[in-house]
Amino acid sequence: MFARMRLSMIRLCSCYSAVLGTLSTIATDQYNPARLALDSCNVYWSSPGGSLSKTPVAGGAPIVLASGLSSPDGLAIDASNVYWANGGGSPSGSIMKIAK
After folding, report:
1. Please, which residues bridge with residue 81 across strands?
2. C-alpha dihedral (81, 86, 90, 92), degrees to nearest 10
3. What is the pLDDT of residues 39-54, one digit of tens each?
4. What is the reported pTM?
5. Per the structure, how many domains does the chain have?
6. DSSP class of 64
């Protein structure tokens, strides 16, 4: 799978071998989705407006995991958490995490 961010939407495509599957829009009306991570269940993204969100890969309503963040950057995930770096404000450069 891969996800593509474009303006205010997130699109997802399943890939099998070298053939691309159908491109699906799974989230719309998002403020400039930036960093992106995905697992088998969800797509996670940050917004320069200071939020961290997720939505199921099958589509559905986006869920805001955190808001009021300081320019979240460098998104990563593991089995339990979503991680990001605060890109500005205070504490700038700190690594943060929140449960998926």
Report:
1. 99
2. 130
3. 989 989 988 788 999 9
4. 0.79
5. 1
6. E
